[in-house]
């Protein structure tokens, strides 16, 4: 995940081999890019999706509760998949820069829970 100071965001995630968890085990990759903004309370981030393999997400806004603690950003989301509520928690850790400056590089550890 990369947040840029000009308001752009890019998210790329891939499921570890052999893990079929989630709503679509056949699609191990998920990614999108677009713009981001903080909501007035500064504990919510909104991603407006412009490009993604998921046509149903293009033009949508994905709202996430966010908590920043040192080099860790935790995003919380609630969605409905086939009518069933799901809660997701993604924890991103800022990675050490590799020779070129970046505003944010990291790895993600996530979990999903159905109600």
Task: Tell me what the structure shows.
The protein has 115 residues and is mainly beta. It is built from no helices and eight strands. The protein is globular. Mean pLDDT is 80; it is low at 103-110.
Provide the fold topology.
Layout: E1 2-3, E2 8-14, E3 29-38, E4 44-51, E5 61-69, E6 72-81, E7 84-94, E8 106-114
Antiparallel strand pairs: 1-2, 2-3, 3-4, 4-5, 5-6, 6-7, 7-8
List keywords for this structure.
115 residues; 8-stranded antiparallel β-sheet; Lipocalin-like domain-containing protein; Lipocalin-like
On the 0 to 100 scale, the average pLDDT is 80
Query: What's the total number of strands?
Result: 8
Major sheet: size, sense and barrel closure?
8 strands, antiparallel
Kindly state the percentage of residues in helix.
Answer: under 10%
Count of runs of 4 or more consecutive helical residues: 0
Strand content: over 45%
Termini separation: 27 Å
Order of helices and strands: EEEEEEEE
How many independent structural domains?
1
What is the radius of gyration? 14 Å
**What is the subunit organization of this protein?**
single chain
Region (Disordered): 93-115
Protein name: Lipocalin-like domain-containing protein
Pfam family, one: Lipocalin_5
Domain Lipocalin-like: 27-94
